[in-house]
Prior knowledge:
This protein has helices at about 1-60, 65-80, 90-115, 115-120, 125-160, 160-170. It has six helices and no strands. It is mostly helical. The chain has a domain at about 45-190: Up-down Bundle (de novo design (two linked rop proteins)), CATH 1.20.1440.20. It is rod-shaped.
Amino acid sequence: MKKTWIIVVAVIVLLILSIMGRYNKMVSYDENTKTAWSQVENVYQRRLDLIPNLVSTVKGFAAQEKSIFVEVTQARADATKMDININDAEQFAQFQKSQGEVSSALSKLLAVVENYPDLKSNQNFLELQAQLEGSENRITVERKNFNETANVYNKYIRVFPNNIISSMFGFLRTNLFESVEGAETPPVVDFGTAPAATETPAVPAETPVEAPAAQ
């Protein structure tokens, strides 16, 4: 009887230790995901912070482009309001939509720049352009890192018996960034010199045919 109780207690202890180990791993993966998300928010916020100076600089050369300025400013304001729960699918989709609208508005603003050569060579604009390009690159990197980190967490809490433990302790699936056609296309920020026009090869002149001598 005593031996049976020892076995039962040992099994219970092992079960508790297993649950604790899995729980702690879930906490670790969850924290990694939240850290990755913080980086995503930081790089998106960095892009939003550049917009006022960018609009102000462009406006100094193209004040008549009022509709573009309004669109960019409104898109920024809408994106700034977002404070989301990454486990909420609706909020996450709205965040991605808002940031996509910022990208779209910036693309239109930068397209306008092509019509103003003096603006394209303005030092302040060139510096902002370089910073914006850097921000877009960081956004791509951090989105990818977040998806990879969240995938590890999501898979871990879904497999058996982890799914039972995650359900008991309230670990929820994290949403991922998805490709939305046209919504997350980063604005083109390169205003380098246009490639040289391709020359059309010259067509060799025909050699005149001499008329036969009269007999």
